[in-house]
Amino acid sequence: MKKLCTALLLSLFAIPFAHANETKQIVLKVKEMNCQLCAYLVNKELRNIDGVISTKASIKDGLVTVVEEPKVTNQQLFDAIHKLKYTAEVVN
Q1: Tens digit of pLDDT for each residue in 78-89?
Q2: 9, 23, 32, 39: which could form a disulfide with 57 (CB 3.0–4.6 Å)?
Q3: Is 14 exposed, middle or buried (0-12, 13-18, 19+ CB in 10 A)?
Q4: Which candidate, 9, 25, 6, 37, places its Cα nearest to that of 70?
Q5: Which residues of 63-88 are buried (b: 16+ CB within 10 A; e: fewer)?
Q6: Full-model pTM
Q7: In a 3-state reduction of DSSP, which class is residue 3?
Q8: What are 56-83's pLDDT values in tens digits?
Q9: CB 68 within 8 A of CB 51
């Protein structure tokens, strides 16, 4: 009985961690992002999307790397950037 309870408990804890590794990465080109404030705003807007894990914007290249869950769509990312009156396109 103890072995069964231990196995059940371990499986309950393993489920969230199994989904944690299911991420994807996308790189977006944002032409209008040319200053530190722009990068901050883009990062902030993208991180407000449910399922976005992290973002990293580079004003030097005008690129934003987004690590996200599979449920996040490109259209959600585009819409968030469009709120700032910027445009985005997928690089990779």
Answers
A1: 999 999 999 999
A2: 39
A3: exposed
A4: 25
A5: bbebebeeebeeebbbebbeebebeb
A6: 0.75
A7: helix
A8: 999 999 999 999 999 999 999 999 999 9
A9: yes
